[in-house]
Specification:
The protein folds into 2 domains: 37 residues, no CATH class; 67 residues, 2-Layer Sandwich (Ribosomal Protein L30, Chain: A). It has 6 helices and 3 strands. α4 crosses α5. Forms part of the ribosomal stalk which helps the ribosome interact with GTP-bound translation factors. Is thus essential for accurate translation. Belongs to the bacterial ribosomal protein bL12 family. Homodimer. Part of the ribosomal stalk of the 50S ribosomal subunit. Forms a multimeric L10(L12)X complex, where L10 forms an elongated spine to which 2 to 4 L12 dimers bind in a sequential fashion. Binds GTP-bound translation factors. It is found in: Plastid, Chloroplast.
Length: 130
């Protein structure tokens, strides 16, 4: 260590806590640095709470519409809606409606999924969006 650095260290040792805080503040302003930031050599392990809050939560963009139950007295109305949504023929749509729970629409947008749910619920079906 050079004598210049040794002198600075000795002067720093003689500073009061208030003077040291003032020195840090002045160094931060003069050199545009943040003394509270961790140095590159240190590794800080975040707690589990920090990890969860640091990672952005992905908003789900694709939804599956599942036909859960079909009341027997509403089967024909639901069958018509299923055909219009899926484009299936009468036989395929009938098999789908009779074998609940069944996937009606896969990987669709939220708006589309809600629209399908509304149509099928108006016809009398029980729907789940996942």
């Amino acid at each position: 260590m050079t004598t210049k650095i040794a002198d600075i260290v000795e002067q720093l040792k003689s500073l009061t806590l208030l003077e040291a805080a003032e020195l840090v503040k002045q160094i931060e302003e003069t050199f545009n640095v943040d003394a509270s930031a961790p140095s590159g050599g240190m590794m800080i392990m975040p707690s589990n709470n920090d990890v969860a809050s640091a990672e952005p939560v992905e908003e789900k963009t694709e939804f599956d519409v599942i036909l859960e139950t079909v009341p027997s007295d509403k089967k024909i109305a639901i069958l018509k809606v299923v055909r219009s949504i899926t484009g299936l023929g009468l036989k395929e749509a009938k098999e789908l409606v009779e074998s609940t729970p069944k996937l009606i629409k896969e990987a669709t947008s939220k708006e589309d999924a809600n629209s399908i749910k509304k149509q099928l619920e108006e016809a009398g079906a029980a729907i789940v969006i996942k």
